[in-house]
Amino acid sequence: MTPEFSRPFRAHDVGTHTRQQMIEATADERAALADRFFLLDLERLTAALELRREPIGIRVTGQIHASGNQPCALSDEPVPFLITEKVALLLVPDIPAGTEIELAEPDLDAEPLLSDVIDMGEIAAQALALALDPYPRAKGVRVPGLLTEDEARAASSPFAALKKP
């Protein structure tokens, strides 16, 4: 199955010099991604990514930028989002079972490189999915008995009892 936002890049074309890739989702791709991620709309998705071959695999780094609207988890009202998310990924060839890879950077994810194709669009789409708020809430939407973070902080204050009538 071809992903909604596919930008294939051949792994064997990646050398030890950094290769830069700038990609942007089309209107049709954004609409398909909005359906996939249950968004009301996806106004923009761009990625500035760099690829570089290393002894252990291919390192993909960069950033994605996205904007659009998610449905409020409580009311389905539009909740706007504006995302800038870093991408730090190490694509590694098959590794024998039981072997571990020690990564130098704590925020770097390792994923298997299953073929000669690296899909830069799918990498950007997955970064978007991870950056989205899993429970977006529209301003002013209240749930009876549920306090906001600020309300909970104020209620736990030692001076909260003084404010009660």
Walkthrough of the structure:
This protein has 165 residues and is of the alpha+beta class. The chain has one domain. It has helices at 27-36, 120-131, 149-155, 160-163; strands spanning 8-10, 19-24, 41-54, 57-71, 78-92, 109-112, 117-119. The strands form 2 sheets. Strands 2-3-4-5-6 form a 5-stranded mixed sheet, covered by helices on one side. A two-stranded antiparallel ribbon has the order 1-7. β3 (41-54) and β4 form a beta hairpin. The longest helix has 12 residues, at 120-131. The model has no long low-confidence stretch (mean pLDDT 86).
Alpha-carbon distance between the two ends: 63 Å
Give a count of the beta strands, DSSP E runs of length 2 or more: 7
Low-confidence stretches: none
Q: Please count the helical segments.
A: 4
How much strand? 35-45%
Q: Which terms summarize this structure?
A:
two-stranded antiparallel sheet; alpha+beta; 165 residues; 20% helix; five-stranded mixed β-sheet; elongated; 36% strand
